[in-house]
Amino acid sequence: MALAHKQYGALPWGELFGPAIQHAEAGFIVSPLLARAIASLDRKRAAASMQIYFHLDGSPVGAGERMRDPQLATTLRKIAREGPPGFYEGEVAQAIVASVRSAERNPGEMTLDDLKNYRAVERGPVCRPFKKYRVCTTPSPSGGITVLQILGILADKPSEALRPGTLSQIHLLSQAERLAYSDRAKWLADPDYANVPANGLLDESYLRSRAKLIDADRDMGHVEAGIPPERETSLIDFAPHRTKTLHGTSHLAIVDKNGLVVSMTSSVQAAFGAQIRAAGFVLNNELTDFSLEPAIDQQPVANAPAAGKRPLSAMSPSIIFDPQGRFFAAIGSPGGREIIAYNAQALVNLIAARASISSVVSVPHFSNQNDTTILEKGTRLITQIPSLLSMGHSPRLRELESGLNGIRKSGNAYEAASDVRGEGIAVGD
Fold it and tell me: Which domains does the chain have, with CATH numbers?
């Protein structure tokens, strides 16, 4: 999912793929994070194509070793030379289909026509004001609407109550997340296949009515999805979906010398995706982003799987504009369904608290997906547990592995930072 401020002209394919081809051929040093992911693979169960991640003696490739992938370099050269048809047709497409159909576990029924007929869909961003700033992010089936709902629910809360790490911020954000995640589970899906009430979910009156459900001193517990204006007279009701939580996502934010901005989140869903390689790359496991059941208690699920349908995602890269309409910041994160909570917290800290980008990507995380309030393990948030318990929360400590990357305009310069929990870096000329 990518968001761009200003339009690029013709895409220079060779220039775009050049660095990746060089790294695939010359090799790159395996990072500790990648090494841990490789070590988690079971070689005995891994497909033959995945053996590139192991030594001949069966040991996994480790941190600090150089890894090369000439097959990937060949594929990237082909795409750089031929453009999209170099991927969706010909040898690369044949390799993908062959790998899917011959998979040792859960072989699929993908065909060459499936790939040839696939079309990327360009959808306009969804934008909403927050504290006089304008936040633009990705529409359904991505996670941007839920992020904007959280911000909209908090719009009238004083900035003082939203200061990073305070009890009031944890409480108010967790309550707004309860409300927004409940709406997400019921109403959001691929708008080409379901009547997604996007305008209603972001309607100011609707968000104010949802905000009124928040008790400033008490956790509201599990909440039901609301009925946005567009659905008040609808005869079709949806059941909330249920999905797995998997982590295999990356984010980048870029501002170039011409002021062009990109905020992009990409994912293969789980680490190594479906653990199937073809033509030098792993295939994703995004099917698990659909609901586990197409219907629950005889009610249809909006995010039910279907041929040609795009699954619901939490990815929500954002670009923020200041009150004068100028670029202010770009940010996003990986992290499964908690991507939404990470991004909402980051946006609140950027805008309401006017925090620096380095502070925004490093503060302790918390989240609530309409269940329990999760606090990041090993952080100062542990000191808030007694107060949260007294307010009716059921706090639980857990690792919250985000990967926030962001850029913030500061005067005539930019400041950039990468999440302290990940392995990203911030660089500039």
Answer: 6-116 (no CATH), 123-429 (3.60.20.40)
Residue 4 pLDDT more than 70?
Answer: no
Q: What angle do CA 44, 47, 49 make, to 5 degrees?
A: 125
Encode burial over 46-78: b for 16+ CB neighbours within 10 A, e otherwise.
bbebbebbeeeeeebbeeeeeeebebbbbbbbb
The answer to whether the beta carbons of residues 339 and 143 sit under 8 Å apart is: yes
- Cα–Cα distance measured from residue 159 to residue 383, given in angstroms and rounded to the nearest whole number: 22
Is 80 exceeded by the pLDDT of residue 265? yes
Beta carbons within 8 Å of 101's beta carbon, 6+ residues apart: 107, 108, 109, 110
d(CA 153, CA 130): 10
Instruction: Decide: helix, strand or coil at residue 69.
Output: coil
CB contact at 8 A, 331 and 343:
yes
Just list the catalytic residues: 249
Alpha-helix runs per DSSP H in 366-423 = 385-390
| pLDDT-derived band at 8, boundaries 50, 70, 90 | very low
> Which string of b and e fits 315-326 if b means at least 16 CB within 10 Å?
bbbbbbbeeeee
pTM: 0.92
Q: If we measure between CA atoms, which residue out of 400, 396, 415 comes closest to residue 329? A: 415
SS3 377: coil
State how far the Cα of 257 lies from the Cα of 379, in Å rounded to an integer. Answer: 37
Q: Are 18 and 73 in contact (CB under 8 A)?
A: no
Contacts 24+ apart (CB under 8 A), 10-15: 13/79, 13/80, 13/81, 13/83, 14/80, 14/81
Q: Would you tell me how many other CB atoms lie within 10 Å of the CB of residue 233?
A: 7
Which residues have a Cβ under 8 Å from the Cβ of 207 and sit 6 or more positions away? 149, 152, 153, 155
CA angle 129, 130, 135 (to 5 degrees): 60
Write down the mean pLDDT value for the chain: 90
* 240 vs 302: CA distance, rounded Å: 8
User: Biggest alpha carbon distance in the chain?
Assistant: 65
Specify the amino acid at residue 8. Answer: Y
Q: Which helix (H) or strand (E) holds 29?
A: strand 28-29
Closest by Cα among 366, 398, 400 to 384: 366
The 10s digit of each residue's pLDDT in 29-50 is 999 989 999 998 887 777 777 8
* Strands 126-130 and 413-418, bridge-based pairing: unpaired
Residue 231 — φ and ψ, nearest 5°? -110, 5
